[in-house]
Amino acid sequence: MSHNHEERIYLSPPHMSGDELTLIEEAFASNWIAPLGPHVDAFERETAVHTGRKAALALSSGTAGIHLAAVLLEIEAGDVVFCSSFTFAATIAPFYHLGAECVFIDSEPDSWNMSPQALARALETASAQRRLPKAVVVVNLYGQSCNMDPILALCRQYGIPLLEDAAESLGALYKGRPSGSFGAFSVFSYNGNKILTTSGGGMLLSDDPGQIDRARFLSTQARDPAPWYQHSILGWNYRLSNVLAAIGRAQMRHLQSRVEARRNIFKRYFEALKDVPGISFMPEPLWSRSTRWLTTLALRPPIRISPFEVLERMEARNIEGRPLWKPMHLQPVFAGGTYWPHEEGHDVSGELFSCGLCLPSGSSLSEPQQERVIECLKEVLEA
Ligand SMILES: *Cc1c(COP(=O)(O)O)cnc(C)c1O
């Protein structure tokens, strides 16, 4: 009963518009085949305009953006950073590479992103122990902003800068304001599976142009302004190529239609599956306009089958799904770390990991393809 002859349905494949080639040709014609050039400058400007930020820096990855933000926030060995536990390891790794340590903050049930009440308890305790973090790092998962206002209020109360990991939320809104416009720094990713892609790339944004100038210097090997190669400190090679920035600019022109397409895909899944007892989708609070980058759902009783088994059954039909992110407080590499659940005894992100999954959600997914996914799910879940 193998269905492997059926065409593969991917989770979130790249979706090219065709305009990319025109802009790449421009890069070739002008011979700007380099990690600088007019497309890089324009991609930065256009992304700054989209978010209303004062400055932006195009980089080779979102992870590079988080690393540079951590350096600009002066995170050093022995420092503590508070971070959403429910995320991808890329959010966290740069802090550990700098010798710092993360305290993991749980999600709230209403948005699946950082729980303001867990953050409040963690900050209160840290303040009493005189061990306040150097930064708070929020993550906007699956195309949805975190609950910004209460989190920003807590950061202001304790005087702690916020870093917004908006890698998954380009195009999303919080109370009408674009994702990536909050906090001291924000970061986007253009990895292959994100809502827009340059095949790989990232953007660091801030309202402090001086900080972005500093990041630009650090991301280009920290060369002193001297007639020879002179270095007073060490930097990195983190810039985005002009060819890839051309792809990014062409992709940016289609952001709104990509958001609409993913939201429509979510709506179709929702309509088809909402009446299956035990299914619930990632909620979208009133303050949020999610891009629904990935349609995600939780399976609870009376559904007995685990998400991992559902994913295997989908794979047997040549359909690619994915488990939800395994929270950082459950990762072997961070064993023994401090974790603040949403409430005492209520581990929201851990529970979501054990019962949730991501469905194919690419903006190029056709209705017949989505029908195949829905049919497969109904069969597996109603059995
Ligand atoms: C994709 C992603 C990143 C990393 O971005 P890259 O461009 O792949 O380095 C960081 N954080 C989150 C939440 C992501 O999903």
CATH homologous superfamily classification of the largest domain: Type I PLP-dependent aspartate aminotransferase-like (Major domain)
Could you tell me the strand content as a percent range? 5-15%
Radius of gyration: 21 Å
Instruction: Compute the average pLDDT.
Output: 96
Shape: globular
CATH architecture of the largest domain: 3-Layer(aba) Sandwich
CATH fold field value of the largest domain: Aspartate Aminotransferase, domain 2
What small molecules does this complex bind?
pyridoxal-5'-phosphate
* Low-confidence runs of at least 5 consecutive residues: none
Q: What's the SSE pattern?
A: HHEHEHEHEHEEEEEHHHEEEHEEHEH
Tally of helical segments: 12
- Structural class call reads alpha/beta
Indicate how many domains the architecture comprises.
2
Output the CATH class name of the largest domain: Alpha Beta
> Could you give a short account of the major beta sheet?
8 strands, mixed
Share of helical residues: 25-40%
State the separation between the terminal residues, measured CA to CA: 17 Å
Q: How many individual β-strands?
A: 15
